[in-house]
Amino acid sequence: MFERPASGERAVLVQLDLGQGAIEERLSELKLLVLSAGASVEAVVQGKRAAPDPKLFAGSGKVQEIGEAMRAHEADIVIFNHALSPAQRRNLERELACMVIDRTALILDIFAQRARSHEGKLQVELAQLEHLSTRLVRGWTHLERQKGGIGLRGPGEKQLETDRRLLGNRVKMLKSRLAQIEKQRKVRRRARERRDVLSVSLVGYTNAGKSTLFNALTKAGAYAADQLFATLDTTSRRLYVGGASVVLSDTVGFIRDLPHALVAAFRATLEETVQADLLLHVVDSASEDRDAQIDAVNEVLAEIGAAEVPQILVWNKIDLTRAEPAVERSDCGNIRRVFLSARTGEGLDLLREALAEVAQQTFHEDAGRESGTVDELPSQS
If you count DSSP H runs as helices and E runs as strands, how many of each does the chain have, helices first? Predict the structure, then answer.
């Protein structure tokens, strides 16, 4: 019988090189995730493998090294920067006699701490339950014992089956509530569309400065901090640029290897991104890993069906790179990048002008379609 060990806040981190590249950047990101979750990093164990070990993921020798690091630093939790199977997690906890969590569970824990709105809490709970549903059998084998006691003896349900059924009922209820919230959001979205309002969503890697930029443009006072996933709940505000009305939405930040359960649970929130007229893709220009971060964001956008929404790259944090505020255009004259600093305000006027230009083009095209005067592209024949 296996009883799950108690958790703690003194962590040993494990990062294996499985040929995925950017190991130092991945490890740096893991440390930020751990600190955002409220734990302390006591030691880091690294290694290299051609493929994960089916039983212990890291192999018996590396697991022994992890155990020695735990005892030397009096740590009480081990965090893998990888996705562990239920069996691997159980086997590791048996070998190390401590709580072991993987990257997915760590991100879910941070989301649970950050959620503030009713919808955000529902989305996080749904993601946690769907993640847990695949881990009942091997994680809590003591639940397989049949219930006992007066009125419960006989052929009845095993505790595990009862838990699985109750979990399934809770998941159905959460999905129903989130579907109702999404209906209400669609009504508000249709009302904006009828009033010729440009819908703009801020997207980007977590901690790229989206909320800081949102506050700088709208004076909304939304929570912003130098930590991963500081903002989970979508916040929308109206602003006026060049005589045009714009609704700007701040969305949850993305991260590489974002758990699919979270993408699915937050699909209703991210629908605001799919339906947007324009995406402001905020990039931390001071990060050495910015190209990989841009790719990670675009992967999630493709997963939720927003890959075709027009984008403007917002090259944020130029105060750290000593770059100058500027606007970069494509060969066709369309705006590709805006260089600015949301913290100092440098270049914000350029972004406002860019939004005004897009709004004018969008409303002009819509008016042309209604009157039948839109210029058509020449045929390719």
Answer: 13, 11
